[in-house]
# Entry
Amino acid sequence: MSLALLHTSPRHVPVFDALRDADHQGLELRHFVDEELLSRARAEGPEAARGDVRAALERAVALGARVVLCTCSSIGGVAEAAAPAVGVPVLRVDRPMASAAVAVGPRIVVLATVESTLGPTAALIEEEARRAGRPVAVRGRLVAGAWQCFEAGDMEGSLSLVAAAADEEADADVIVLAQVSTASAQHLMATTIPVLSSPRLGLAAGAEAMAVGRSSSGRGAGE
# Structure
């Protein structure tokens, strides 16, 4: 049994491998990378990638995935919605982060490097706020130039721009880093506002789903 991770960038693979080694030793990860999913979502909107996302999930399941964690915030909602069709739990990496942000306070700033992420992340936070019965005011901000640096392989430049944008924020209870690729920017920030990112929280949710699945399988075998 493996936890499959659906990525839209190969740069995410070592991030989650490192978190697995630090927090979840023994958890079997299987990585699936499809950069075209994000390209299509950016060009035509996340819904346009629905069929391709489902096909990617079905491939992961066919190769032994028992839980799939989608690490791309732009297509996370589309992936999550496909779970009944593919027959295994499909988690979005940013849902635990959104839940945590709602618990911190109502004024939430979302920082993203691609515009296609802003809408889905804001909608997710608002969904978690309704679930918790808490009011929120979500404000999105696109960090100019950060994605171009990322695409060019200038990770330091991309993270520096995200960190600078966070440090400029003053009217917020919490800052949310909408993408896995921006998580390391936290180490460059001087802001005193709480900052949340998704990789560690998301992988923990995936590990928990795997544990629940193993427990359910064990009970079924013994009954």
Observations:
- DSSP finds ten helices and eight strands in the chain.
- The mean pLDDT is 94.
- Residues 2 and 65 are 5 Å apart (CA to CA).
- The two ends are 21 Å apart (CA to CA).
